[in-house]
Design brief:
Blueprint lengths: L1 E5 L6 H10 L3 E5 L1 H4 L5 H14 L5 E4 L3 H10 L3 E5 L17 E5 L2 H7 L7 E3 L6 H8 L4 H7 L1 E6 L8 H4 L12 H7 L3 H15 L7 H4 L2 H10 L14 H27 L4 E4 L11 E2 L9 H7 E6 L11 H8 L4 E4 L4 H4 L7 E3 L2 H12 L2 H18 L2 H15 L1
Parallel strand pairs: 1-2, 1-3, 3-4, 4-5, 5-6, 7-8, 7-10, 8-9, 10-11, 11-12
Helix pairs in contact: 3-4, 7-14, 9-12, 10-12, 10-13, 15-18
């Protein structure tokens, strides 16, 4: 079997390529977008057409959904298989989602429930996974120097989302007084009404775990103002429904919420504990956090997870129920994980035995203090979590499930 893997340099791509290869599948790779991030949909379709004209692929695969690939595969009657690993993904609103030759896998069950009705029978739920073999190779040779250099009481690896926050860009203009209409706001910035509404919504959502109510709480006025103020708002001329509410909630307010939540959480913990942060983001608002700079994903990150006493995960709220990649990777490295509660966690892990969760800042503080002083219990939980992931949640198991679904559709 031969497949074409369309790459754009997502961190999951090497793991999937290796897994496909281990399954005896020949993998050809289209890599133009790895070096040229300005590839247009037309160029993507042209490159794909050249491949499909010259080869007979069993399917074309990508991480996340590319409408241009879907349309091209549909024209050639070749299955297009993609695994969505992010949220939000605006491209899922493209009419291409309805194509007959799609085989789309979504990692967040809430995301799956939203999009499955658009193309029933061709959209599936598939949680993320860990490349345990890769992480084992990275951590088994760790030295005492590695443990000293990468260890710590509490570690967090990830973006602070300040550099990715579209909502903040809308705040730079001078705010208009309450009562300003959206047309005027589009020329200058968000009104005081919208700023206050969003601030209040963020404060309310920060107090609630496991239930994302931002989209339902938005008013038409706030949605209209944000969509009109930002000239780069994703409008997509090829969408099957209005994207305003979803993208305002997830791509604007959801990302802003992630930035606020991560900054507050890290600052609060740093008041009482040693907190190490590995990130490329601006850390000037975290005076007591030990900011270590970025960590290399394949070599340094697994050592941090393995050596740290507590690895913190703060799931961004646009991931409504699903388990982020960080959860699988920490456990796959044999690290102890303390994560915010997500609705899907009990489906895969036993809380208190294979990982730990929190549902408030007070509970987070209490559990950090408890597990720093209960080393044997912490180590046992980390081992149990590793064994669960190694046995049931590897890329081999996910790809096998993917292929089973594909075979059932033939």
């Amino acid at each position: 079997m031969e497949i074409l893997f369309y790459r754009y340099n997502n961190i999951c791509e090497p793991d999937l390529i290796q897994t496909f290869t281990d399954f005896g599948i020949t993998v050809c790779t289209e890599e133009t977008e790895m070096t040229d991030k300005h590839v247009s949909p037309q160029q993507c379709a042209l490159r794909l057409t050249q491949w499909l004209t010259e080869h007979s692929f069993a399917f074309v695969f990508s991480i996340n959904f590319f409408p241009a690939i879907s349309y091209t595969c549909n024209r050639f009657k070749v299955p297009y298989v993609c695994w969505s690993v992010d949220s939000p993904v605006p491209e899922l609103f493209s009419n291409a989602l309805k194509n007959e030759w799609n085989r789309i896998f979504l990692f967040d069950h809430a995301q799956y429930q939203s999009f499955h009705p658009v193309n029933p029978g061709r959209i599936f739920y598939l949680p993320l996974a860990a490349n345990v073999k890769r992480w084992e190779r990275a951590v088994l040779g760790m030295t005492e120097k590695d443990f000293a250099g990468y260890g710590g009481d509490v570690s967090f690896v990830g973006s602070l989302y300040t550099e990715k926050c579209r909502y903040d860009r809308l705040l730079h203009a001078q705010p208009l007084p309450a009562g300003t209409d959206a047309a005027a706001a589009a020329c200058t910035g968000l009104s005081e009404h919208t700023r206050g509404f969003v601030d209040g919504l963020i404060e309310a959502q920060l107090k609630v775990y496991g239930c994302n109510f931002i989209a339902n709480a938005l008013t038409d006025r706030v949605i209209r103002e944000i969509t009109e103020v930002d000239p780069d708002f994703y409008r997509g001329g090829d969408t099957y429904t209005d994207t305003g509410r979803y993208l305002t909630a997830h791509q604007y307010i959801g990302i802003k919420l992630a930035a606020v939540e991560r900054e507050r959480t890290l600052n609060r913990l740093a008041e009482h504990f040693q907190v190490n942060l590995y990130t490329r983001s601006d850390t000037s608002a975290l005076p007591k956090v030990h900011c270590k700079g970025p960590a290399l994903t394949l070599t340094q990150m697994p050592k941090i997870f393995h050596a740290s006493r507590i690895n913190l995960n703060i799931t961004m709220r646009p991931i409504e129920t699903g388990l982020s990649q960080r959860i699988w990777d920490v456990l796959g490295c044999g690290g102890f994980l303390l994560t915010n509660w997500q609705a899907e966690i009990p489906e895969y892990f036993e809380i208190g035995r294979e990982l730990e969760t929190y549902e408030s800042m007070e509970e987070l503080e209490q559990k950090v203090r408890y597990y720093l002083s209960h080393e044997d219990e912490r180590i046992e939980i980390a081992l149990n979590g590793y064994e669960k992931v190694a046995a049931l949640h590897t890329y081999e198991i996910r790809v096998a499930e993917m292929i089973r679904v594909l075979n059932s559709l033939l």
